[in-house]
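Folding follows sequence. Below is one example:
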Amino acid sequence: MTAPEQRARQRRLLLILGPALIAGGLAVLFFVTRMPLPLRIVVGLTDVVAGCVLLLVARQKFSR
């Protein structure tokens, strides 16, 4: 695999995983009822922050 193909693959993966993590975190925050509230908040917000970080990394690394 050449370098441009590898960069494109990494960018595509980050742009898929970022929103998926954000959506999963929001789903945990609002729709999961079997977990205690403090644990739900920690898990949901951790996923949302991780998704935002992935999108930020994609934007900074692949801005050109």
Remarks:
- Residues 39 and 53 are 21 Å apart (CA to CA).
- The two ends are 20 Å apart (CA to CA).
